[in-house]
Amino acid sequence: MRHKALKLGKGFRVAFAVRRMQAAEMVLAPGDSEGDEDNRHRGADQWLYVVSGTGMATVEGKRVPLKAGTLLVIEKRERHEIRNTGRTLLKTLNFYYPPAFDGEGDPVGPGREP
What domains can be seen in the chain, in order of their start residue? Predict the structure, then answer.
């Protein structure tokens, strides 16, 4: 068993990974974004859950509004960007299957770009 109290501080940080799954937290300041039209995870699906705040996800050119309670699944290879469109921090909890990042937040393994 593993457990961790999440800080949900600004930026992206891996919480932990077990075998074939990884959890990470991402916090974006108002106006900030993560990713762009070329951002994708080659071999990992990303499940993004909005803890608080508002934003907009653009996945394969389709826009999806984000608010507390939203669950978004970004399938492997789908190009995507997450943007904070609100006035408060956008806090998300993300799960990657299989793991896509190392402990420093750099892409690794099957989730890395070609």
Answer: 14-100 (2.60.120.10)
